[in-house]
Design a protein that fits this description.
This protein is mainly α and 193 residues long. The protein has two domains: 9-58, Orthogonal Bundle (Arc Repressor Mutant, subunit A); 67-190, Tetracycline Repressor, domain 2 (Orthogonal Bundle), CATH 1.10.357.10. The chain has helices at 9-31, 34-41, 45-49, 55-66, 79-96, 100-107, 115-142, 152-155, 157-169, 175-190.
Length: 193
């Protein structure tokens, strides 16, 4: 297929990822085909199959391409600031996933634990909860957190509130609301008595 100038490397990959999301919007996950993606990206199917064996592999890579990198351990030295940074990362990921194509992918994944769920869990949700837990443990060592509050269960509270609000109300928390989750819910749970 001739497009004038042959694209390679990053340019071709970006066009293919964009085509994945355009096709998801147009035909949904069930209607998504490698041929449709190739046509949308103005390339041949062979270019897709050289890198991806299936549409699931391609969709997974496309998702990873649009999602932010997993958060690194915050190094603020203060539990409140660590919580704000990590919850902001999670919130911003939800914002990135609000596109129509991603919504279609989520809705069509069947049991709700399809490709999108797995990629977001591995790339963002689990690392955020792991970093929150690490921050609680470090905060307990500094005396900012009650030792018995430095648990994985408590590390899930903030992310659960953000995801719940997003799912039930369809809105994303702004910075002030995130600060309220930290200041009015999380800090009182972990603060030394």
């Amino acid at each position: 297929m001739s497009t004038g100038t042959r694209r390679r490397g990053g340019d071709l990959e970006a066009a293919i990822y964009e085509a994945v999301f355009e096709q998801l919007k147009a035909v949904g996950y069930r209607g998504l085909t490698m041929e449709g993606i190739a046509t949308e990206a103005r390339t041949g199917k062979a270019a897709l199959y050289r890198r991806w064996q299936s549409k699931d592999e391609l969709v997974t890579d496309a998702l990873k391409h649009v999602l932010p990198d997993p958060p690194s351990a915050p190094s603020t030295g203060r539990v409140r600031e660590d919580m704000l940074l990590l919850l902001t990362c999670l919130r911003d990921t939800l914002v990135a996933c609000r596109g129509a194509a991603l919504k279609v992918l989520k809705e069509e994944s069947g049991d709700g634990k399809g490709i999108m769920h797995e990629v977001i869990r591995a790339r963002i949700s689990q690392p955020v909860m792991d970093r929150l837990y690490e921050s609680l443990v470090e905060g307990a060592a500094r005396g900012e957190v009650r030792p018995e509050a430095a648990t994985r269960q408590i590390a899930k509270v903030g992310p659960a509130m953000i995801v719940y609000r997003n799912l039930t109300e369809g809105v994303t928390m702004d910075d002030e609301q995130l600060a309220s989750v930290v200041d009015d819910v999380l800090i009182p749970i972990v603060r030394p008595r």
